Amino acid sequence: MMNTMKTIDRLKKLFSPFLIVTFIGVSVFLSSCDDDADPEIDGNPTEIETAVAYGFRTETESSTIYYLGVYEDFVDELDVEDAVELGPNQRVWFFGEHPYTWSGDASTITKWNIDKTDLSITQGETVSFAAEGVSGNLGEPVFFSESRAFFFALVDGKIIEFNPSDMTITTTINVDPVEFEGHANGAWYDAWIKYTINDKVFLPIGLIAGSDWLLPDGAMVAIFDPSTNSITYHTDTRLQAGQYWFPTSDDGIAYVLPGWDLDAEVHYNGVMNPLPTQNILRLNNDGTFDDSWTFDMNAPLSTLGNPLAVYDVVTVANNVAVILWREGDAWPEDPAERWNEFGSQGRYAAVNLVTGEASPFTAWSDYEGVGSAKPIDGVNYFIVWQSGNNEEILLRQNAFDSYTEVTKLTGGSIRTAARLW
Amino acid sequence: MRKAHTILLAILLIVWTNAKIAAQDQKDRYAVKGKISDENGKPIPFATVRIEGTSIGAIADSEGQFILKKLAGGEYTLAVQSLGHLPTSFKLNITDQSPESIMITLKSNARELQAVEVVAESEKQQLELSAKAVDVIDTREVKLKTVDLGEVLAQTQGVSIQRSGGLGSDSRLSLNGLSGDKIRFFFDGVPLDFTGYSVGIGNIPVNLVDRVEIYKGVVPIAFGADALGGAVNMVSSSIVMGLHGSVSYQTGSFGTHRFTLDLKHLEPKSGLLIGLDGFYDFSRNNYEVDVEVPITERPLRGRIQEITVPRFHDDYEAYGMNLTLGLIDKSWADEIKVNLFLNDTYDEVQHNAVMTGNPFGEVIFSSDLQGASLSFTKDFGRSLSINSVFGLNSTTRVFVDTTRNFYSWNGEIQGRRNRQGEVSGSVAGGSHQFTWDDNYFNRTNLKWQFNEKHTISISSAPTYTLRTGDELLAGTFDPITAKGIVYSWVNGIEYQADLKEGKLQNVFFIKNYWQQVRTEREVDGSEQVSVNERKISNVGWGNNLRYNFSDKLIAKLSYEYALRLPRPDEVFGDGNFIVRNLELEAERSHNLNLSAIVRNSTNSKIRWRLETAGFVRSISDLIFLVAATDRTSAFDNVNEATSIGIEVAGELSGLIDGLKISLNSTYQDFYNSASKGGFARFEGERIPNTPYFFANSSVSYSLPKKLVGDQSINIYWSSRYVHSFFLGWESGGRNNPEFKFTIPNQHIHHAGINYRLPLKSVKMTLTGDVQNVLNRNVFDFFGVQRPGRAYYLKIVTQF
To answer: pTM for the whole thing?
Structure first.
């Protein structure tokens, strides 16, 4: 019976193009009689006043395919049909009114143009960094202006300045590479790159442990000064190296928040007396670490249960950090199982960085995981997921503990969103 | 489960007891061997030999040689006939003093060609006309061409091959839409890894294969395999008396050299068999490709330009060898063989999966394999036979990606990176990885034809695999050092009925799949060992039905509920970012084939044959790697897919003397039928990156004898069309089709001529061949260009 139904569905699918063509034909005919449907006023096309763009992806058996979609406003649900197919291994970034896509395979950045009258997407110029030897999953460039941007490949000791308007390379700056003792795989965490008031770029040196689980000692930050094309590295041993992000609290303080798998990496690498993994640090305005301040998350989390690991510090606002942590007594013997029971053992907590008080944070308790997205229109956004129903949702923050589901994607992953104009 | 094994053991014991009794029966201890030739001494292939008044008979092989077994001493009348020759018969007295081999000469009788009744089919035809869902490719003609086995298979309906480059490149064979682990490969019925030809299906030299059997969806129990979508069995040349063999050498474009050797000697008196076969392949694969590279000078520095360059790091070198020692026609064994084999490959890797960015200049993959097998065949008389093969091998695979250099498409070092590795980009280090496999295999088939119409077969195939590895660039924790152990046991029982005077054949079978998977991993480099273990057992079944409505119309219906057992890495992950999934189930598929063969009379001068087949594959619990958390993944049974298709194939010969035409086409709607899970959004859409419409055609023409005399000249042309298909889901970017990632239509042509020298002692053929005649840019995988026009010369000697 099921198969019969599926066959009928299949036949419907085969005939549906004819129905659609007929419908479109009739619609076009009727529309041609309707003067009000003309998008032109006095012969000039009407420009669409706002545009919101998304980068997202879906899986196939053989690869992950990325998409770029541009809409008049936030959409309730993303659909691959409306988007431009970008192919495998892409990243989507936005600057000004243009999306930019990075192909980690081709080592190219492509600029995309959006027609303001109908939001149609056309491909602009492409700049290739293949001759510089950089490729893979690298972080977002820093766009200083329409004609000046920097692309960082610090593992290879290279910063490539390029012109986003004509998409050519201006120069390649050779700098001291990040040294990570050959242990770790270097990876930029690409959502958070911070400008200082002096137009210096703060770069978190995000590192993922390689197969040996080893990481270099000390959290690292790189400060790039574009006026002198120089880079300075700072290390602080109050926190283990790993993945970080640098959210700026509403009081303007840049925090160094440990994230991802740091606790697990340190547990499984077998190193005796490892550096702390559950400290939050602060950066000074010149990019150095604030020696006078540190916050140990373990103590406040212990008031809520038995913290085994901090999985992520998602955000900081009003001196309160929202922490995704794991309860438990011991790590499983098999490292691959370290997050097997994450759904049942993961907890969100709100921890006051001044008072040290911790309380359960319930606003995201319906979601299995959460990640930060870039602010849009000055408002914070987050991407949450539920593997059970294969959905990812873009959340808009209304208040510290109040969120609205804005855009949903079924069967894929939302990577980024931005308002173009 | 335990009960099933007990019953099976009991059956084995009973059968073995019967076999022992039969082995003592020395009554039928004589055999007649011979060779049939024409008046010029040229072997006559596939002649029919019969002992009148008995059911004993044989069909001569391609060299005109035959063997009649199980004869008691005495006087017989031997009748021989072959198309185009006068039939003959003569008395034959079989005693201990009889000659070891007899020579039979048939006189040509072209005028009476129409009157000769051909009563037997070739082995290829016999198999095709059986109830089995099988297509058979006879490689006798193809051996003279310069194509490889991948090209040969791609000429078959229902089969598509996607290749990532030239000789030695990765290939992906798809049978009715199913590919990868879902298809199993065999050489003379033995899993490919237990032979000297484990280089991959697309790269096996065609000269070492006499025919290829392609089982679509329904796989006989005799293979003892968990093949979800079918199996491909390559059959080597048959054993004949004396020294026989073939040697071939091919050279041509892209620095290609291919050499094959196939020698077999059967000593008639002692029954001693010595065989040596093998191959050596080398290709630089330096064909030209169109690539995008950055401009390096101002003012357009970084902008893209397209250039055409030869590939510079794609050398492929491989050799394989089988040394066979055996005894034939002993009282205790019809055939017993020991086979020692080895196979080495060296393969340079030129680029990433989409041929973009920096090319690779130093990435290398290599493997070496050594092993041995022992096979035993005995027909005990009383319609009971046994065939058993034991095999073991050891394989080392090495992947090297350690350089800090990066290259331009001109083959020059463009600079040095701060970290090792070209493959993994700027965010990960390199790799120098070893993996080691030790495999043990046995398969025993028992066949009992308890009367002319009914046959029962039993098959049992245990396999043991131990895999471990080492990443030299890893530190204290190296997940691939974990030991993965797989113990699989596939058992089957089959009942075949030949009814209605042979018009109806039905084969029913049941298979049991049992698997134990175990991993052992050191914990934190300590003495402790973490052990994971899992066992599963599944049952599948199937049925083949064939009915001959007449000699000219044959219909087949076959079905199998087939399974593929999960691999250990799918069950236990990699100990790092791929999480184990002990609940992982076998992939399952309901495979249904319905086919009809229509052909004209075998006595006609003009011969034609039309075959059409429809198939359905309804696959569930497809195993995919899916995200478990945002940093880890796991293999899971997440997808369902359905493949519905039709194949049509036709052959025509004799319209003009020497002209042969064949055509075939396949259309398969292979779509995602998952209504829940991560792929539900794409329900009803075609499975990405898989061809769904393709067709082949070929024409060959042999110049008439009156023009070429004793020589033989054959001209041939073949063509293949593959319709474009998408890399991603159909609906993705549908409203912006100009950006859709599409593998374009391909229509390629090959042409050649072969010339057989008029030598009497040996067959020697020279072939000139042009592949991709129109020099089209051809893509099987997105972005990865295959070779353009190529010229080859080949010489083949058979004796």
So the answer is: 0.82
